[in-house]
Amino acid sequence: MNQSIQTNLNPYAIQLCTLSRWAAQRQWLPFSSGLFSIRTSEHSALFTAADKDKNELSPADLISYHWTSQNQPDTATAIHQFLYQQSQQHKVILQTHGLQATVFSCLIKADQHLFVGYELQNLVAASAEQRSCCPLAILDPQNTELTLQELHQRFARETLPHAFLIRGHGLYVWGDSIDSAKRHLDTWHFLIACELERIKASCHFN
Protein backbone atom coordinates (compact mmCIF):
# COMPACT_ATOMS: atom_id res chain seq x y z
CA MET A 1 0.00 0.00 0.00
CA ASN A 2 1.14 3.55 -0.66
CA GLN A 3 0.52 6.45 1.71
CA SER A 4 -1.52 9.14 0.00
CA ILE A 5 -1.86 12.78 1.06
CA GLN A 6 -5.37 12.65 -0.39
CA THR A 7 -6.69 10.61 2.54
CA ASN A 8 -7.50 13.79 4.48
CA LEU A 9 -9.54 15.09 1.54
CA ASN A 10 -11.78 12.04 1.26
CA PRO A 11 -15.22 12.94 2.68
CA TYR A 12 -15.61 9.42 4.08
CA ALA A 13 -12.26 9.22 5.87
CA ILE A 14 -13.57 10.62 9.15
CA GLN A 15 -16.57 8.28 9.02
CA LEU A 16 -14.28 5.27 8.53
CA CYS A 17 -12.16 6.34 11.52
CA THR A 18 -15.26 6.86 13.64
CA LEU A 19 -16.52 3.41 12.68
CA SER A 20 -13.15 1.86 13.55
CA ARG A 21 -13.21 3.44 17.01
CA TRP A 22 -16.81 2.27 17.52
CA ALA A 23 -15.82 -1.34 16.72
CA ALA A 24 -12.66 -1.15 18.85
CA GLN A 25 -14.70 -0.02 21.85
CA ARG A 26 -16.74 -3.21 21.49
CA GLN A 27 -13.58 -5.31 21.76
CA TRP A 28 -13.81 -6.48 18.14
CA LEU A 29 -10.36 -5.15 17.15
CA PRO A 30 -7.91 -6.22 19.88
CA PHE A 31 -4.21 -5.41 19.68
CA SER A 32 -4.57 -3.12 16.61
CA SER A 33 -6.00 -6.05 14.62
CA GLY A 34 -8.66 -5.99 11.93
CA LEU A 35 -8.85 -4.14 8.64
CA PHE A 36 -11.48 -1.62 7.51
CA SER A 37 -11.67 -0.06 4.07
CA ILE A 38 -13.86 2.21 1.97
CA ARG A 39 -13.94 2.39 -1.83
CA THR A 40 -12.66 5.63 -3.36
CA SER A 41 -12.84 4.69 -7.05
CA GLU A 42 -13.42 1.69 -9.29
CA HIS A 43 -9.90 0.43 -8.58
CA SER A 44 -8.91 1.92 -5.23
CA ALA A 45 -9.87 2.17 -1.57
CA LEU A 46 -8.73 3.70 1.71
CA PHE A 47 -7.54 1.20 4.34
CA THR A 48 -6.91 1.44 8.05
CA ALA A 49 -3.26 1.03 9.02
CA ALA A 50 -2.46 -2.48 10.24
CA ASP A 51 -0.26 -1.43 13.17
CA LYS A 52 -2.42 1.44 14.43
CA ASP A 53 -4.66 1.20 17.50
CA LYS A 54 -8.14 1.55 16.03
CA ASN A 55 -9.21 3.51 19.13
CA GLU A 56 -6.80 6.26 18.09
CA LEU A 57 -7.31 6.25 14.33
CA SER A 58 -7.35 9.54 12.38
CA PRO A 59 -7.67 10.28 8.64
CA ALA A 60 -3.90 10.76 8.47
CA ASP A 61 -3.49 7.08 9.40
CA LEU A 62 -5.48 5.79 6.41
CA ILE A 63 -3.62 4.27 3.48
CA SER A 64 -4.63 4.45 -0.16
CA TYR A 65 -4.32 1.24 -2.16
CA HIS A 66 -4.82 0.79 -5.92
CA TRP A 67 -5.54 -2.62 -7.46
CA THR A 68 -3.38 -1.70 -10.46
CA SER A 69 -0.22 -1.27 -8.37
CA GLN A 70 2.56 -3.81 -8.68
CA ASN A 71 2.72 -4.38 -4.92
CA GLN A 72 1.65 -7.85 -3.77
CA PRO A 73 -1.04 -7.37 -1.09
CA ASP A 74 -1.24 -9.42 2.09
CA THR A 75 -4.12 -11.88 2.43
CA ALA A 76 -6.51 -9.51 4.24
CA THR A 77 -5.95 -6.73 1.71
CA ALA A 78 -6.32 -9.19 -1.18
CA ILE A 79 -9.68 -10.33 0.25
CA HIS A 80 -10.88 -6.73 0.40
CA GLN A 81 -9.76 -6.23 -3.20
CA PHE A 82 -11.57 -9.41 -4.26
CA LEU A 83 -14.80 -8.28 -2.60
CA TYR A 84 -14.64 -4.86 -4.23
CA GLN A 85 -14.18 -6.48 -7.60
CA GLN A 86 -17.30 -8.62 -7.14
CA SER A 87 -19.65 -5.65 -7.30
CA GLN A 88 -19.62 -1.88 -7.60
CA GLN A 89 -22.20 -1.96 -4.80
CA HIS A 90 -19.55 -3.11 -2.34
CA LYS A 91 -18.50 0.25 -0.92
CA VAL A 92 -17.27 -0.59 2.60
CA ILE A 93 -15.58 -3.76 3.89
CA LEU A 94 -14.91 -4.54 7.54
CA GLN A 95 -12.85 -7.33 9.08
CA THR A 96 -12.89 -7.87 12.85
CA HIS A 97 -11.47 -10.29 15.42
CA GLY A 98 -14.25 -10.38 18.01
CA LEU A 99 -13.93 -13.02 20.72
CA GLN A 100 -17.31 -14.68 20.15
CA ALA A 101 -16.99 -14.74 16.35
CA THR A 102 -13.50 -16.26 16.60
CA VAL A 103 -14.62 -18.95 19.06
CA PHE A 104 -17.71 -19.69 16.96
CA SER A 105 -15.63 -20.09 13.79
CA CYS A 106 -13.48 -22.74 15.51
CA LEU A 107 -16.39 -24.47 17.21
CA ILE A 108 -18.35 -25.06 13.99
CA LYS A 109 -16.62 -27.73 11.90
CA ALA A 110 -18.86 -27.47 8.81
CA ASP A 111 -18.13 -25.11 5.94
CA GLN A 112 -21.23 -23.08 6.82
CA HIS A 113 -23.73 -22.61 9.63
CA LEU A 114 -27.45 -22.00 9.18
CA PHE A 115 -29.11 -19.30 11.28
CA VAL A 116 -32.83 -19.99 11.73
CA GLY A 117 -35.51 -18.24 13.70
CA TYR A 118 -33.90 -14.88 14.42
CA GLU A 119 -35.82 -11.71 13.55
CA LEU A 120 -32.58 -9.82 12.92
CA GLN A 121 -31.74 -12.12 10.01
CA ASN A 122 -33.82 -9.65 8.01
CA LEU A 123 -31.06 -7.07 8.44
CA VAL A 124 -28.39 -9.18 6.73
CA ALA A 125 -30.37 -11.44 4.38
CA ALA A 126 -29.29 -11.05 0.76
CA SER A 127 -32.40 -12.85 -0.56
CA ALA A 128 -35.97 -13.59 0.51
CA GLU A 129 -35.00 -17.18 1.31
CA GLN A 130 -32.32 -16.04 3.77
CA ARG A 131 -34.93 -14.26 5.86
CA SER A 132 -35.95 -17.67 7.23
CA CYS A 133 -32.69 -19.62 6.83
CA CYS A 134 -29.51 -17.58 6.64
CA PRO A 135 -26.20 -19.39 5.89
CA LEU A 136 -22.90 -18.03 7.17
CA ALA A 137 -19.95 -19.45 5.21
CA ILE A 138 -16.89 -20.54 7.20
CA LEU A 139 -13.59 -20.86 5.34
CA ASP A 140 -10.43 -22.54 6.54
CA PRO A 141 -7.35 -20.31 6.73
CA GLN A 142 -5.01 -20.93 3.78
CA ASN A 143 -2.50 -19.01 1.72
CA THR A 144 -3.74 -16.02 -0.22
CA GLU A 145 -4.19 -17.82 -3.53
CA LEU A 146 -6.21 -20.72 -2.09
CA THR A 147 -8.35 -18.44 0.07
CA LEU A 148 -9.25 -16.31 -2.95
CA GLN A 149 -9.93 -19.43 -4.99
CA GLU A 150 -12.38 -20.72 -2.37
CA LEU A 151 -14.06 -17.32 -2.15
CA HIS A 152 -14.44 -17.26 -5.92
CA GLN A 153 -16.14 -20.67 -5.80
CA ARG A 154 -18.47 -19.56 -3.00
CA PHE A 155 -19.54 -16.42 -4.85
CA ALA A 156 -20.06 -18.42 -8.05
CA ARG A 157 -22.51 -20.88 -6.49
CA GLU A 158 -24.30 -18.94 -3.75
CA THR A 159 -25.37 -15.49 -2.56
CA LEU A 160 -23.52 -14.67 0.63
CA PRO A 161 -25.49 -12.65 3.23
CA HIS A 162 -22.99 -9.78 3.37
CA ALA A 163 -20.56 -11.79 5.49
CA PHE A 164 -18.33 -14.82 5.95
CA LEU A 165 -15.96 -16.17 8.60
CA ILE A 166 -12.39 -17.40 8.22
CA ARG A 167 -11.86 -20.03 10.90
CA GLY A 168 -9.78 -18.67 13.78
CA HIS A 169 -9.07 -15.52 11.79
CA GLY A 170 -11.99 -13.15 11.68
CA LEU A 171 -15.38 -11.99 10.44
CA TYR A 172 -15.68 -10.16 7.11
CA VAL A 173 -18.74 -8.04 6.30
CA TRP A 174 -19.51 -5.51 3.59
CA GLY A 175 -22.17 -3.04 2.55
CA ASP A 176 -23.11 -0.38 0.04
CA SER A 177 -22.51 2.40 2.58
CA ILE A 178 -20.91 3.07 5.96
CA ASP A 179 -24.29 2.64 7.64
CA SER A 180 -25.15 -0.67 5.97
CA ALA A 181 -21.70 -2.16 6.65
CA LYS A 182 -21.99 -1.11 10.31
CA ARG A 183 -25.47 -2.66 10.50
CA HIS A 184 -24.22 -5.92 9.02
CA LEU A 185 -21.24 -6.02 11.40
CA ASP A 186 -23.34 -5.34 14.49
CA THR A 187 -26.06 -7.77 13.42
CA TRP A 188 -23.70 -10.65 12.64
CA HIS A 189 -21.90 -10.25 15.96
CA PHE A 190 -25.29 -10.37 17.68
CA LEU A 191 -26.48 -13.43 15.75
CA ILE A 192 -23.23 -15.28 16.44
CA ALA A 193 -23.50 -14.44 20.15
CA CYS A 194 -27.07 -15.79 20.13
CA GLU A 195 -25.97 -19.05 18.53
CA LEU A 196 -23.18 -19.51 21.07
CA GLU A 197 -25.67 -19.04 23.90
CA ARG A 198 -28.04 -21.52 22.25
CA ILE A 199 -25.25 -24.09 21.88
CA LYS A 200 -24.20 -23.63 25.51
CA ALA A 201 -27.78 -24.05 26.71
CA SER A 202 -28.21 -27.16 24.56
CA CYS A 203 -25.04 -28.73 26.03
CA HIS A 204 -26.18 -27.87 29.56
CA PHE A 205 -29.58 -29.50 29.21
CA ASN A 206 -28.22 -32.54 27.42
The value of Rg in angstroms is 17 Å
Find the count of extended strands (DSSP E, 2+ residues). 8
Sheet/helix structural class: alpha+beta
Distance between the termini: 51 Å
CATH superfamily heading = Class II aldolase/adducin N-terminal domain
Task: State the domain count.
Answer: 1
List the uncertain runs.
1-8
CATH fold category name? L-fuculose-1-phosphate Aldolase
Major β-sheet strand ordering: 3-2-1-4-8-7-6-5
> Total helix count?
5
Describe the largest sheet: 8 strands, mixed
> Which whole number gives the mean pLDDT?
90
In what range is the share of β-strand residues? 15-25%
What order do the helices and strands follow?
A: HEEEHEHEEHEEH
The level of helicity is 25-40%
CATH architecture assignment: 3-Layer(aba) Sandwich
Q: Could you describe the 3D structure shown?
A:
The protein is α+β, with helices and mostly antiparallel strands and 206 residues long. It has a single domain (5-205), classed as Class II aldolase/adducin N-terminal domain (L-fuculose-1-phosphate Aldolase), CATH 3.40.225. Helix content is 37%, strand content 20%. It is built from five helices and eight strands, in the order H-E-E-E-H-E-H-E-E-H-E-E-H. The protein has helices at 13-25, 75-86, 99-107, 144-157, 178-205, and strands spanning 35-41, 44-47, 63-66, 92-96, 112-116, 133-139, 163-166, 170-175. The chain has an eight-stranded mixed β-sheet with strand order 3-2-1-4-8-7-6-5, with helices on both faces. Helix 4 links the parallel strand 6 (133-139) and strand 7 (163-166). Helix 2 (75-86) runs parallel beside helix 4 (144-157). The protein is globular, with a radius of gyration of 17 Å. The N and C termini lie far apart (51 Å). 35% of the residues are buried. Residues 1-8 have low confidence and may be disordered.
